[in-house]
Amino acid sequence: MKKLATKGAKSTKVVWTLFVLFVPFVAILSAQDTTSIPLKRFAVIRVNQQDINRVPNDLRQIFADPVPDAEVVNSLKDATARAGFTARLPKSDKTPQFGVVAPVSEQLKISVAELRAALSEAKAGDVAVPDSWDGVTIDVTQRSGIFADFGGFFVVQAPIQTMSVRSGFPMDQFIEVLCRILGMNAAQARTMRQTFTATPIAFFPIPTRYDMDVHDVKLRTGTGTLLQNGSKQGEMALAWSDNDLTYFLSGQLTEAEAVSTADSIQ
Q1: CA atoms within a 13 Å half-sphere pointing along the CA-CB vector of 105
Q2: Where do the structural domains in the chain lie, given as residue ranges?
C-alpha cells in the first residue's frame, strides 16, 4: 500500500488499483419511468487491466476509485457544512484532519455496437445484446463525502451511491454481459448475475497479479468486506455500509483493530 496525495495534506491509499463496479438488479418492475437503487453491499472480483480496457469507454465510469482525492478543510464543522451531513467518527485519541470528497454525477450511455464488439474481442460471441438496449442511459449519483485522516488510518464516508435506469431494463442481463466482457466464462457470469438478482451490490475489481486475502467480516451494522495482501502484511482496507452511509477504512491495522474501529463509529 502507498500514500494517497490529497490537495495540501497527507493521506493513504491501497497499492492495488481499486475500481468500483456499482451494479443493481431491478427485481420488480415499477410503474415509474426510472428505477433508483441504493447500493449497500460490497464484493470483489479479480480482473486484468486488459479486461477492463475492453469495456466501452462510455461505460468505464462504472469503475471508480473508492478513495478519490479530497479537498482539505480546516475542521469537522467546515466538512459538515460542505458535505451536508455530520460525519460519524471512530473512537481515537488522535485529532483527525478532514477533507471533502466531491459528489459523483455520471450518466453512462449504452452502445449496442460497442458491447457486441467488446464481446467479440473477449471471445464471447455466444452472448446476445438486444437492439433495444441502444441508447439506454444509467445515472450514477452520490452526494459529497467526508475524508478523516487519523495518521495511522483514514476513513472515507459518503451517502449511499445510487444507480438509476429506466424501469423494465434487464439490469441482471446487462451485468452478465459486462462480466463476459471482463473475461468471465458463462458459468461465472451466470453466478454473478444471480448474485445481482439477490441484492444490489457494489464491486471492487482488483488486478489478478496481486496476491490478495479478501473475505467478509461481521460488523455491528452488518457485513463488511476486508481486503489485505496475501501475506497479511502492510495496510488493509475495509468497506461496509449502514442505513444511509457507505464507509471505506484503510491503514496500518490488524483485522481485529479494523473491525473494532469500524464498530466504534457513531
Answers
A1: 4
A2: 2-28+35-264
3-state secondary structure of 189: helix
Digitized pLDDT (tens) for each residue of the chain, 266 residues in all: 433 444 444 443 433 333 344 344 333 333 348 888 888 887 788 888 899 999 999 998 877 666 667 899 999 999 999 999 999 999 999 999 999 999 999 999 999 999 999 999 999 989 999 999 999 999 999 999 999 999 999 999 999 988 899 999 998 899 899 999 999 999 999 998 998 888 877 777 888 888 888 899 999 999 999 998 877 777 899 999 998 999 999 999 999 999 999 999 98
C-alpha cell at 127: 452472448
Give CA–CA dist 52/181, Å, rounded: 8
pTM: 0.80
